[in-house]
Design goal:
The chain contains 19 helices and ten strands. By secondary structure, the protein is of the alpha+beta class. The chain folds into four domains: 135 residues, Butyryl-Coa Dehydrogenase, subunit A, domain 1 (Orthogonal Bundle); 105 residues, Beta Barrel (Butyryl-CoA Dehydrogenase, subunit A, domain 2); 151 residues, Up-down Bundle (Butyryl-CoA Dehydrogenase, subunit A, domain 3), CATH 1.20.140; 179 residues, Butyryl-CoA Dehydrogenase, subunit A, domain 3 (Up-down Bundle). The radius of gyration is 24 Å and the shape is globular. The chain starts with 32 loop residues before the first helix and ends in a 6-residue tail after the last helix.
Length: 593
């Protein structure tokens, strides 16, 4: 059963200028019965097969991780979104995203699995020939074969196209001969098949399928990492590594298309895994706060701890809401492209929402970092001990701000894509930005609207005006120079990311209220608290950006406009957080689901 489509056709990045309605917004409350069964199955798998064995997983006990991947394959979790013709379950993109979310609390296992059924399998599924798909995908779907993705090199991290690994056609024209090195390759210790990026003839960036037993391929020792210790990470060395010509993936010189398109999906799924990890860390922290006593009372009764628990839940709520809203957009777009006869519809859909995928990667990883950091703090000295799982969660979290493109790169990409799409006429940003400049010259509207959620909707609409004002003025003033003003772009990205989260949770809370959801009042508490704090963050980022490129009367006018657009009504966030914390303590888990 597929998820029912609820979304309106908002273009990628269009949330800034296109209105949305709660009834057109997909939320976790819309999961089908089948999806709830998948949630339960994933939870039982983690509780029974993964979490009790974390010490052995971290020690990389021989054969344990591959066996867990195979067990996930037996349950249908690896190939959930793979077509049935290749041994998958043929589920929709929302369901595939849900699996990553539900298994995100699996620490190193979550990393290994995500690498396998994401970047380790999708390049073959979407860019392989029929013969390549028939050979590899059914075995990848069951876990009989394990996949890996070999892109990064010692001299090319964020600059992937600077790779130096070469692939030269043999004299008889039957094979490619690879020479070079790859580093930080997840699953390298046990993967059977690798998607390797190399330059054909020294300059044509391409992708090639390389099997583990290929002569000339060798491996470095396991890397000793800060976190995700159970995840196999090794170097790959290619020394006259001879691969059949038929293993070329896609077209010669088009490797960047494979790399960047797969990364769009990878970024969204990283957010999913980070969100799942945050839920487990929150649950662990709640239970500890209920049982740990100081001054003869549980520390969960202290306001300082309640603040932390509630804020952790609010950030998970934001990640989850943004994640599944975007996942449904991609799913809808995929169906639209399929209906139009387009090939590789999912990749096209993910490219349409590449801006949102980049933002999700940032917000998901940083929200998780906040949750695990505060989780350690709630545990106090025990949080610094390996005997408590929160210390593992803290170490494992840090890599997520580096994986799938650093958060700095993804912030820059967010604004770069906005500006390029605006220049190509793909999205109309400058029109609304010019209208807001005229609005700054008018008298503000001091009218009040007492209808439910009107105040919150106005604040979020004003956040968008603040972004358009700052981005439009920066683009006009700096023009092509803006792309090198990374600090300004980062400020603008922060404004966009906070606004996206604010709108997603507002629409979700409105829908919960309209549907008489029992947690609707607490959702509104989360929304109002998030918006109240986001206003200050957006104001600070906007002020920093404006002061970086404007001066004199222009600067003063924009700062006045920013103050107008980030104004919020007074709100008692303390009591709102206490209400959320009380529910968390009662349920002993994240309850917005």
């Amino acid at each position: 059963m597929e998820t029912q489509s609820l979304s309106s056709s908002i273009q990628g990045g269009g949330f800034l200028i296109q209105p949305s309605l709660p009834e057109q917004t997909f939320t976790p409350e819309d999961f089908t019965e089948e999806q709830h069964m998948i949630i339960q199955m994933c939870g039982e798998f983690l509780e029974k097969d993964v979490l009790p064995h974390m010490a052995e997983i971290d020690a990389q006990k021989e054969g344990l991780m591959p066996s867990l991947i195979e067990k996930a394959g037996e349950l249908g979790l690896l190939g959930a979104a793979f077509p049935e013709q290749y041994g998958g379950l043929g589920k929709d993109f929302v369901t595939a995203t849900l699996v990553n979310d539900c298994l995100g609390g699996g620490h190193s296992f979550a990393v290994a699995m995500a690498a396998h059924n994401g970047i380790g399998s999708l390049p073959i599924l979407y860019f392989g020939t029929d013969a390549q798909k028939q050979k590899y995908i059914p075995k990848l779907a069951t876990g009989e074969m394990k996949g890996a993705y070999a892109l990064t090199e010692p001299g090319s991290g964020s600059d992937a196209l600077a790779a130096k690994t070469t692939a030269t056609l043999s004299a008889d024209g039957k094979n490619y001969v690879l020479n070079g090195q790859k580093i930080w390759i997840t699953n390298a210790g046990f993967a059977d098949v690798f998607t390797v990026f190399a330059k054909v003839d020294g300059d044509k960036f391409s992708a090639i399928i390389v099997e583990r037993n290929t002569p000339g391929l060798s491996f470095g020792e396991e890397e000793h990492k800060m976190g995700i210790k159970g995840s196999s990470t090794r170097q790959l060395f290619f020394e006259n590594c001879t691969v059949p010509k038929e293993n070329l993936l896609g077209e010669i010189g088009k490797g960047h298309i494979i790399a960047f398109n797969i990364l769009n999906i990878g970024r969204l799924k990283l957010c999913a895994a980070a969100t799942g990890g945050a839920k487990l860390a929150l649950k662990t922290s709640i239970i500890y706060a209920k049982t740990r006593e100081q001054f003869k009372v549980p520390i969960a009764s202290f306001g300082a701890i309640q603040y932390k628990l509630a804020e952790m839940a609010i950030r998970v709520f934001a990640s989850e809401s943004a994640l599944f809203r975007t996942a449904q957009w991609i799913d809808d777009k995929e169906h639209e492209l399929n209906a139009a006869g387009k090939q590789d519809a999912l990749l096209g859909a993910a490219e349409e929402y590449a801006i949102e995928c980049a933002m999700l990667k940032v917000l998901g990883s940083e929200n998780l970092d906040y949750v695990v950091d505060e989780g350690v703090q709630i545990h106090g000295g025990n949080g610094y001990s390996d005997e408590y799982n929160i210390s593992r969660a803290y170490r494992d979290s840090r890599i997520n701000r580096i994986f799938e493109g650093t958060n700095e790169i993804n912030r820059l990409l967010t604004m770069d894509m906005y500006l390029k799409r605006a220049m190509k006429g793909r999205i109309n940003i400058m029109g609304p930005a010019m209208a807001i400049q005229k609005e700054l010259m008018s008298i503000p509207d001091f009218g009040t609207d007492d209808t439910p959620f009107a105040a919150e909707q106005k604040v979020v609409a004003n956040f968008k005006k603040a972004i358009l004002m700052c981005a439009g003025a920066a683009a006009q003033k700096l023009m092509m120079q803006l792309e090198s003003e990374q600090e300004i772009l980062m400020n603008l990205a922060d404004m966009v990311i906070d606004t996206f989260q604010a709108e997603c949770i507002l629409l979700r809370a409105m829908k919960m209220k309209n549907n008489n959801n029992p947690n609707a009042a607490l959702a509104l508490d989360a929304v109002q608290t998030f918006i109240y704090d986001a206003a200050d963050r957006i104001s600070h980022a906007g002020k920093t950006a404006i002061n970086s490129f404007a001066e004199g009367d222009e600067q003063r006018m924009m700062l006045m406009g920013l103050k107008r657009f980030t104004k919020t009504e007074s709100y008692n966030t303390k009591e709102a957080r206490r209400r959320i914390a009380a529910k968390l303590v009662e349920k002993e888990r994240y309850f917005f689901e």
